[in-house]
Task: structure prediction
Amino acid sequence: MTFIRQIAAAVQQWWPQGCAVILGICAGLLYTALTERIYTAQAYVVVVANDQSTIDHTTNFAQAFTRIATQPGIMTEALRPNLPAKTVGQLQREVRVSASPDAPLISLTASAPQAAQAAGQANAHAQALIAYAAAHAADTGVRIASLSQAAPPEEPSGPDQLLNMGVGGAAGLLVGGLFYLVSPPRRRADEGTRDEPAARARERSRKRPVQA
Result:
């Protein structure tokens, strides 16, 4: 019976926190179900020298092309009527460009609501960067060639169900903790009310010898 009473006391004390965590997890599941799926595709291009330049030379140019790949002049050439991004600003939010630190390799990652659109956007951006490098090849001495075209991904990259559940559970735990912090004064008052008869009995027991 003591064990059952301990369990009952723990449930009575911690049920707000448990309910808050469960509600947070359910909110994460609901957010995952209602959020639009996002697909991500990657295309790879490589910087090639027109002469016998060193690997460091082409790697430096890869870093330079990565920095300017999201400029409006290049992004405008990557816009396509059949793709979701209709403005340069939208395309800049949906495309990420990165370069390898030790090789003249550039990665172009595009995100879209559909797998085919993500692959098409990544390839369009790669072609725009290739065309820009070709137009300036006489000045730079390098060009960009396609290494691997983007393929439509089979699985969406977001939203992450486990991540959303974890965030929702953590938010619920925080709310439950705040409730616990503001609750102790009330609980202590209740405990004092329950212990008041016992305190009066102890006080009377101490006073009896004096009265005698």
